[in-house]
Amino acid sequence: MKVKYLTTLTALTAIALLSFGTAIALVKPESLPQSLSEAIAGEAAYAQFNSVGGTLAKKLQGKPVVIDIYASWCSACKNIAPTISQLKQQYAGKVNFVVLDVSDKSTTAQSEAIAKELGLSNFFTANKTQTGSLTIVDPATGKILSQHRNNANKSTYTKVLDAALAKR
Question: Residue 77 catalytic?
Fold first, then answer.
């Protein structure tokens, strides 16, 4: 009887809340701990997608960081290679460029070690399958300023890099 009353009360509360324009999601009581943990994981994932998830190494501090997730077999990587080359020339000495190669197990292991050394372990774990992506990071905050996959449009990156350099 008590369970039926709570279910009815929950349904009435949902109807009342919806009538005021508030959206809610109902979950079964036994699934609440799972839903709560999923919500917390979702918040962590959101934070992870907006930052590299940690403090960058000292050698990356002071300059914007461009992270290239690369694989030799990746067609998107080949597509953006000329753009990356132009960016490296244009921003030489002003921007840190990091290439994390995931072409095979050996290069992935090397890139994992590099990512750890640079304070990019969480970022690498979350993004190692995103070949052909370029990510621009603010070194002071670890915040991701821009992230694009298979985008060969140089001006997309120069706008973000110029703005980041102007803030220094």
Answer: yes
